[in-house]
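User: Need the bound-state model for pyridoxal-5'-phosphate:
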Amino acid sequence: MMSYLADPNGYFGEFGGAFVPEILHRCVEELQHTYLNVLQSKNFRDEYTQLLRDYVGRPSPLYLARRLSARYGCRIYLKREDLNHTGAHKINNAIGQVLLAQRMGKRRIIAETGAGQHGVATATVCALMGMECVVYMGKTDVERQHANVEKMKMLGARVVSVTSGNMTLKDATNEAIRDWCCHPSDTYYIIGSTVGPHPYPDMVARLQSVISEEIRKQLKEQEGRDCPDYLIACVGGGSNAAGTIYHYVDDPRVKIVLAEAGGKGVESGKTAATMALGRTGIIHGARTYVIQNEDGQIVEPYSISAGLDYPGIGPMHANLARQKRAQILAVNDDEALRAAYELTRLEGIIPALESAHALGALPKLHFQPNDVVVLTVSGRGDKDMDTYLAAPYQAS
Ligand SMILES: Cc1ncc(COP(=O)(O)O)c(C=O)c1O
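Assistant: Bound-state model below.
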């Protein structure tokens, strides 16, 4: 049977691989040869599992949202990654990669960040481990996610504000790769999503797969069955979605719905809906869908949500879209804002703007009363309060 997980060369169907500048070949090869041995070693597993439990607070709850369920006529469970230490799923990956960096003898950590959640998670783990940390962040995002910038600074990280392009996640990633090229021997680059050259997409998916591992156990306890009818997650680069679907992706009983950022509308020219609009290209070291013009130039993306404002997509998700294994929905800014207010008023949970896109998929789907739906709330909304308060409350 065909699998939707990575093959040994880091390909998901025709997507993936490692397309990196000459200077990084050795680093990337070293990582390719090391990551599986480390991730599967007892010593790593013990330390990682203990930190996830005692430091992050895992397992995160699987919460049956009764009022939201009543609204959509099915049984909706929320996977509460927003309750993790630092407020999002990103810390699952940051801890794993810092432990790997330590085992590879690297002392200096760099990262890119969009919404700032990956930056905060990385700065947090670097504080915990006493490691140097530099975070690249587009200037637009420094402004719209300033609470996270202050946290990174307090944690001792240096935040570099990037002023190229439209000053968002793509541009921050470019700068982080440039830094890595200048310091290939002592620096470890912690990528925050299932993007970048092999082995990153596979490695980040594995580190986030704790999410679906827990869903399986929790559903069994609460519903008496270990697989849902639907899994729903938002997709920026794809890491919370990859974690949510990892143990179900090859199970045809489970429908997968991925919500990408429609921005002001897929046809508006102001969008980050890569799976709707992208064509195959190479971005940040992987072959995947990229929003590009006829000359192959990347088109600047747009989304109200800094974490989804990216013109590429993880190769795993490009393949899921190409193979039609996942249903892809574009959720626009206004739909995400409405969904954020809806969750807040029905369940008393203020979601991150990114997670609000997953919630914005609910009205686009048609459920049966017995359907069991698991939707990942990838993060909490503290960082997005300015944006929420600037948008009027939209009752529905
Ligand atoms: C809370 C939250 N959810 C989702 C995302 C999107 O990233 P990914 O697709 O890798 O989960 C981000 C990225 O910053 C985020 O902060």
